[in-house]
Amino acid sequence: MNNPLLTASTLAYGAPQFDKIENQHYIPAFKQAIEEAKSEVDAIINNTDDPTFENTIEALEYAGSTLNRVSHIFYNLLEANTNEEMQNIAEQITPLTTEFSMYVSLNESLFQRIKKIYDQKNLLNLNAEETRLLEKTYDGFARNGANLSPEKKEIYSKYIEEISLLSLQFSKNVLAATNAFSLNITDESDLTGLPDYVKEQAADAAKHKELKGWHFDLTAPSYIPFMKFSNKRNLREKMYRAYNTRAFDGELDNSQIIKRIAELRILTAKLLGYTNFAEYQTERRMVKNPDAVNEFLNKLLVPALPKAKQEVAELNAFAKDNGFEEENLMPWDFSFYAEKLRVERYDLSDEQLKPYFQLEHCIKAIFDLANKLYGLTFYELNDIPVYHKDVKVYDIKDKDGSHLSLFYADFFPRESKRGGAWMTEFKGQRIYNDIEERPFISIVTNFTKPTADTPSLITHDEFTTLLHEFGHALHGIMTKGKYESMTGTSVDHDFVELPSQIMENWCYEPEYLNTFAKHYQTGETIPNELIEKIVESKNYLSAYYHIRQLQFGILDMAWHSLTEIFDESPLTFEKNTLSATNVLPSIPECIISTAFSHIFAGGYCAGYYSYKWAEVLAADGFSLFKEKGIFNKETADSFRELLTKGDSIDPAILYRNFRGHDPEPEALLKQLNIVED
Questions:
Q1: Bridge partners, 409 (sequence order)
Q2: Spatial distance between the Cα atoms of 203 and 221, rounded to a whole number of angstroms
Q3: Any long-range contacts for 508-517 (C-beta under 8 Å, 24+ apart)?
Q4: How far apart are CA 203 and CA 184, in angstroms?
Q5: Catalytic site residue from 58, 79, 469, 574
Q6: Are strands 440-444 and 403-410 parallel, antiparallel or unpaired?
Q7: Sheet containing 377-381: which strands, arranged edge to edge?
Q8: Whole-angstrom Cα distance, residue 446 to residue 201?
Q9: Inter-residue contact 243 to 223 (CB < 8 Å)
Q10: What's residue 1's pLDDT?
Q11: Tens-place pLDDT, residues 361-411
C-alpha cells in the first residue's frame, strides 16, 4: 500500500497529505512506525560502544520520528474530525502504542546505558540544553518505572494500558452524550428573548439537519447564548440538566470509568513510591507538591468566596426586582439574569458587541498583533490540503523573511469535533542532522458558523478565547531549540498556560481594539464608549467566575489526592468535595466529573490548578507591558525570549528573567478587583 502517512510529502514544507489520508492507512502506518521505532531503540541498546550522550541520549531523542508523525496526525484528527471507525481504530492501536512505550520506558538495558551517562554527567562537558535533556531523560525513565522489579514493571504496564483505553472510552462517551441531546423548537413563541442572530443560527442548524423550526444543542455556540437569553425558564432548565448530566447514567455513563481511572492512578503512584497521584504529578512542576497547590488554591479562594456570595446576592435581588418569584436563583437562571444585570449596569450586551467582532477581522487582528509585537507575517495558502473544508492554512514568516511555521486554523463546530478550544501541533520543532525542521501548529475552536445572510460574528468572550489559543500557538510557532521533546509547549503544565493567559489581556486594551473592531455592515469603528464599557465590565462577576475555576482545580486535586478508591458514587464524592465552595444551589443529580475531559482524558490530572497559577503569572507579567506600553518592542522581545526557550531552561528562571521577580497570587486578586490595589 502506498501509505501517505509513511511516504515523504512533496507539499510545501513537507505538510501532511490530508487529501490522501484515509482511515485504512492508520493501522498499517502505526504498525510499521512502531516496528521502525523499535529497531531504532534496539540499535541503541545493542551498540557495543560505551554509552555516550550522542549514541544513547541524543539517539533516543531522535528515535521514533515516524511514529511521532503518524501519532500527531491521527490523535489530532481523532479530536477534531472523528468518526466511529477512527474511534474503533484508536481502541485497536492503543495496546500497540502502550506496549511500545513500555518496551522503551521499562527496558533495563536501555536504562542502564542512560544511568551510566547520568552518573558521570559532570564530566561530560555538555551545554545547558544537553544537560537538561540528559536530566529529563533519566528522570522520565525513573518516574515511569525503570527502577521497578521485573514483576512490578509488568503490573505497571498493565495499569498504563488500561488507563489509556479507559481514557479513550471516556472521551468517546462524552462526545456521544453531547451529540445525543438536541432541543428542536417548532413553536416560535418558545424563542422569546433570543436575539435574531441566535434564532438565525438555530434555523440554519435545523435546516442542515433537515428539521423544521429551530435546532439547539450542547455545543458552546448554541448552548451558551440559549442559557443567556431565553425567556423560557423550563427550556433553560432542560438544557442545563442535559449539559450537566452528560455521560452520567445510561449507556454512556462514565461513573465507573472515572473511578477506575482514579484507582489505577493511585495504584500506579504507590507502585512508584508515592502516597498518591497528586504527589507524583506535582513533584516535577513549578509548584513541587500537593500541599503547595492546596495552599495556593486556598489563598485565592478565601478572599474571593465572600465577594462571590455578595455578587450572587446582588444578582438575586436584581432578579426579584425584575419579576423572579422564587427564593433563590437556580443555576439555569444565572446566565440569564447575569446578562440582564450586565446590560442594565453597563448598558452593554453581546448583541451590541458581536457586529464589531466579525471572525475574519478578528483573525487579521491577532495576526497584526503578532506582527506588531514580534514581526511575524501570515500568508494564507490555498494549495495545501486540509482535513476538513473549514480549515485554513497559513505560512508564517519571521521579521527577516524566514519561514517559521505552518499554521492550521479550524474554527467551527461539527458533530465530528469535540467541544471547547485547544492548540495542538502536527509536527514539533527540532534540529536534526544540522537541519532545522520548523513546526506545524494548529488551533481548534467552536465559534458560530456564518449563515447565508450573516458572517461569523463572535462574542467578546470568544475573542478572548481566540487570543488565548493564539498565545499557545505563538509558543509553538516561535520556539527555537534542538530537541523536540523540549521545544514549544512541551513545558510544565503550570507554565504552559502563561503565554495563552497573557494574550487575553489585549482584548481589553482600547489602543488595540480600535485598530480592527469594525461593524460588519457599516464599517464603523467600534465607538469609544463601547470600548469603555468593555473595560468597565471586565471584572463583572469576576469573583463568581474565579470561584468556578477554583472549584475545577479543587475537584481535580480531590480526585488525585486519594490514597484508595471510595465505595460511594462519584456524584456523592463530588458534592462533598465542593459543598463548602458553592455559591449557587447544587442540583442533586448534576455532576462535573463524568465529563471533566481535562483530567480524565486531557492530561491535566492533578494539574487543573495550573490555569489559575498561570493567571497569576500572566497578571504579573502583563503589568510590565502596561508599564512600558502594550506594543513596547523591548518588552515584547524579552517575552519572545521566554517563548523561544521551550523547556530548555527551568520555567521559574525563565519567568524571573523576564519579569525580574517571582510572581505573587495578590497580582491576580488585584487584577480581578477582589482585593484593593
A1: 392, 443
A2: 13
A3: 508/534, 508/535, 508/538, 509/630, 510/535, 511/630, 511/631, 512/365, 512/369, 512/630, 515/365, 515/368, 516/361, 516/362, 516/364, 516/365, 516/368, 517/356, 517/357, 517/361, 517/365
A4: 10
A5: 469
A6: parallel
A7: 377-381, 392-397, 403-410, 440-444, 422-427
A8: 13
A9: yes
A10: 62
A11: 999 999 999 999 999 999 999 999 999 999 999 999 999 999 999 999 999
Active site residue 469: yes
**Average pLDDT along the chain:** 96
Assess contact for 170 and 600: CB atoms under 8 A. yes
What distances in angstroms separate CA 502 from CA 4, 141, 462, 472, 622, one per listed residue?
Answer: 39, 33, 16, 10, 6
Task: Give the lowest-confidence range in 118-132, 536-550, 660-674.
Answer: 660-674
**Residue 472 and residue 489: Cα distance in Å, rounded?**
7
What is the distance, to the nearest Å, from the Cα of residue 516 to the centroid of all Cα atoms in its chain? 26
Please check whether residue 398 is in contact with residue 494, taking contact to mean a CB–CB distance below 8 angstroms: no
* Backbone phi, psi, residue 590, to 5°: -90, 145
DSSP string, 516-527: T-B-TTT-PBPP
| Type and span of the H or E element at 3 | none
- Residue 217's pLDDT band, with cuts at 50, 70 and 90, is very high
Q: What one-letter code names the amino acid at 649?
A: I
Residue ranges of domains in the chain, CATH in brackets: 12-105+107-147 (1.20.1050.40), 186-236 (no CATH)
Q: Given the DSSP bridges, would you call strands 183-185 and 214-216 parallel, antiparallel or unpaired?
A: antiparallel
pLDDT at 677 over 80: no
Residue 91 neighbours by CB distance under 10 Å: 13
Bridge partners of 435, per DSSP, are 432
Give residue 396's pLDDT: 98
- Nearest C-alpha neighbor of 505 from the set 615, 645, 390: 615
- Which pTM was predicted? 0.89
Are the C-beta atoms of 581 and 554 separated by less than 8 Å?
A: yes
Question: What is the percentage of the chain residues whose pLDDT exceeds 70?
Answer: 100
Q: Which three cell numbers stand for residue 314?
A: 446582588
